[in-house]
Amino acid sequence: MKFPSRFLALLLSAAMGFAALPAGAAPVIKVALECPPTEGYAELFVSVFQKYAEEKSEGRLKFSVYTNRSMGNLDTVFQGMQFGTIQMTVQTTSNFSVFSTALQVFDLPYLFPDMDSIVKTLQSQEGQAVLNTLNQKNATVLATWPSCLRPLITSSPIKSLEDVQGMKLRTTASKSHISNIASLGMAPTPMAGSEILTGLQQGVVKGMDPDISSMYHEGFYEVAPYFFLSDHMASAWMLVCSSKWLKSLSPEDQAIIREAGKLYAEAMFNKCSAFNEQAIKELVETKGCHLTVPSPEEKARWVEKSKSAYDALPEDQKAVALKLRGIAWGE
Q1: Taking the model in full, what pTM does it have?
Q2: Strand partners, 23
Q3: DSSP state of 84
Q4: Which of 12, 25, 115, 329 is the most buried (most CB within 10 A)?
Q5: pLDDT, block means (10 residues), the chain with 331 residues
Q6: Residue 62 in contact with residue 46, Cβ under 8 Å?
Q7: Would you say 102 and 132 are in contact if contact means Cβ atoms under 8 Å apart?
Q8: Residue 236's Cα: distance from chain center in Å?
Q9: How far apart are CA 102 and CA 92, in angstroms?
Q10: Cα(first)–Cα(last) distance of the chain, in Å?
């Protein structure tokens, strides 16, 4: 039987990872991250999660963190988690929704009014039920946190809703993200994270709605220097591990991993809250970027226009979405 080269590479990685271990030594826990090692969620994984877990386990748990997509894109990483070659990763709910479509609900427009409401909703019984749909894919959500409400960043200025009609905007593959952007009158263009910068440079898309940290660290603002604080969609992140791997640990070490996840999520929430405003201010003042904050009246127009994204949902999904929105908005 002939196996795909990617499959063989994953199996070889597993063999190499376990063959060289001394007798009785625990395998190194491989963590795959897309970001540079200097970006916040990579730095805090090492300084908070890894530090706590290694110290608390007295060395039983050892981690090796791979950054800059060095373990491949999310599809490859998720396959690695199924095969046992990778144990853990961090990604947005939007990107994880290709493995569990239930997660797409978090990409609906104006589901959340602010950062605190995202935390409250994700931690609610209803929010946890949605997150736990990943369990069916041998994946366990260890922690969640919001990083921001997304802005639009574009190659030309936006002052009002009329300015974005027909604009080609990069989205993830999430159907709700696509529906979100389409409901506002734009032309959603799904594109992998590794293709965004080239797509902006070549004019394939005119803008995107990035996580603010990614925009800052990956330099998207250099080709899309106009910021519009639409706040139309949450950027919520998850620390996810292989369920099979987690269950292979002792109850004591499982508890350490889960507690480390809580500490990591809290640290990430605090960092993101402080970082977002500072980053935008710096880019406007020192990098020549331009910021537009819509008036309450203008934002109300965006909220009203986006309602078609909810109306287009099947009734069962719409019920879940409205329940989550009610929790977020206190309705």
Answers
A1: 0.84
A2: none
A3: T
A4: 115
A5: 43 43 70 87 95 97 95 94 95 92 93 95 96 95 95 97 97 90 96 90 95 89 96 95 97 98 96 91 96 97 95 91 96 80
A6: no
A7: no
A8: 5
A9: 14
A10: 57
